[in-house]
Amino acid sequence: MKIDVFPHILPKKYFEELRKKAEGVDFSELSGWVIKNRALSDMDTRLRLMDRYPDVVQVLTVATPPLETLVSPSDAVELAKIANDEMAELVVKYPDKFVAAVACLPLNDIDAAIKEADRAITELKLRGIQIFTNINGEPLDTPKFRPLYEKMAQHNLPIWIHPWESPIMGSPTKGSSKIIQEWVRRPFLEAIGWEFETSLAMMRLALAGVFKDYPDIKFITHHCGGMVPACAHRIMIRVNIEHMRKFYNDTAVYGNTAGLMCGYAFFGGDHLLFGTDMPLGSTSSGGYGRTLETIRSIEEMDIPALDKNKIFEDNAKQLLNLTF
Length: 324
Prior knowledge:
The protein has helices at 12-21, 28-36, 43-50, 73-93, 110-122, 146-155, 178-185, 187-207, 210-213, 232-235, 241-244, 257-267, 291-299, 305-319; strands spanning 2-4, 8-9, 56-62, 98-101, 129-132, 134-135, 138-139, 159-162, 219-221, 248-250, 272-273.
């Protein structure tokens, strides 16, 4: 079995309600992106794709843009509940395809986010939460986010960190259709900008003492820890490198075995997890991501078979407390 810990979905009901509530936002750009990657919202398409890889199961995460960048706090609360309920239903309906889901939160209201995290984990049995490398432009070491970290340490479940451009990258954080237009049209943001954002967020969390205050807290980064493995010797001048090694990281580097080996050398086999970014990453319209390339890139790693098994399956089972 291979457990994909970082595929993406835009649950149909959630996406429909999001379009209604995001006043003044032009969804034409995003809708075109969803059509290109139709497995995001079209469940029939997604299931057909997954049938190509019968040994792959998924842990569902809601795709960008971040909810808090598009709607008010009150609407974000409602939409997060819709998304989480819908994903929980999919896990129950298709247990051979979806083994877990990750909570979408109204991060523009931290008290409400903590409440929804509790509901999603205790009532819906979701296996963690997703946040972004900044929250409406505020970095993750901002003190008001600490109660959320404390809550997740208590739940002993991970926090997924998805990259999102911050003001330092010259992108708006909320309030207009420009959010979507710039995100879709500026390829450098996803090509290298998000790697920078991930690395910056990781360093901020480590420097702020989050791992010291919550020794058992667990974060999962997208795209194998961004630039951190390659820049480790420079980073260690400023940051406790053992804190940086506490991050868990997926393998969504689009088939780059050398990149995975760099991540493996820094984080070790216990802190890498199979993740594909599915259905994103396609180079052609109607494509379905890089699942095959990701599998091959792990299989080609010059590491013990035991560590490959950890990456494909064992680490995710342990981290998410999966018992099947």
